[in-house]
Design goal:
Length: 393
Amino acid sequence: MRQFAASAALLLLSAALPAAAQRAVFRTLDGRRLSAASIDRTVQQLMDSTRVPGLAVALLDGNKVSYLRTYGLRNVAEKAPLTPETAMYGASFSKAVFAYLVMQLVQEKRLDLDRPLHEYLPKPLPEYEAYQDLAGDERWRRLTAHMALTHTTGLPNWRWIEPDKKLRFKFEPGARYGYSGEGLQLLQLAVETIAGQGLTELSQARVFGPLGLQRSSYVWQPAFEQNYALGYDEQGQPLKKRKRSKAQGAGSLETTPADYAAFLAAVMQGQGLAPAARQEMTRTQVRIPFRAQFGPLATAAVPDSNRAIRLGYGLGWGTFDSPKYGHVYFKEGHDDGWENHSVVFADQKKGLVLMGNSSNADGIFRALLARLLGDTDTPWQWEDYVPYQNLGK
């Protein structure tokens, strides 16, 4: 079960590669020239070292997708291959797409980042069933789109993680960074109210349609049925596929490797956003002085390595500054059975997308970032990208 059928699939793929595949298809940040064959060998070796049934890799250069390939299987039992058109769960990639949509409303002056969100709503926030837990705590009046997108609302990541499953403030709004899906969901309520449309329709009209992303949606679509991936746990067991019917800007995106790579390229090129809006979205808005993004170390003092790269958050995207390569923005997506990562070195016009249908996939992300992109600056400890050799599996 360790290698699944990834090795066989890659051998077939490599055998079909033309001679041109031996020539360089990508130049890394540190100047190495990678051929398609060398990329395939690197990915195969890493996938074979742990239980990762399927992985998609996209490399971007000159703000364009220069290399896109999928490896392994979308369904192990059926021996069905993962393809660039396979529907995969994007998890928190959802937030990056949602932030891009929100910034369109900001540049149209339909949404003010610093105006309290409740002012866009027809009734007080606690009168909505989903927010009745906040009754009696007037801090909801201070929440803004800026706070939601920078994860400084003070709300928890998800209320259902709390012991009593109730929504409450964990700290003062605007005081510090604290990752919060709940904050993005509140912003979604305001956005849908402003636009008079649900997120499914809005995203199709403003993002997926204009960018030609034909297999992406915040809800499950019948078109996904013939080609979608299952997620697998740490032991390689398949997890039940969730076919979401409720759009969530914080985490319901179903997309494909080809679509998400095209979306990232569009962001890099500035499609759909004026230069000022894109710059505002991807610049550092708040610093992150903590050791880890989640768990008990999420409020522990930041290590020197994270301080040196000025780890922070923009509007919907994480940020840091590479000592050698300039400003960087990134977005991850995690859930049981799914691990995704995307990163853009803006000054170098280079980027990388990784999408894996396994809880183990993030154990090879640090190595993939270094070997395929030349990125040794991404704060892998803060991301909890523990190298697979240390996983104890």
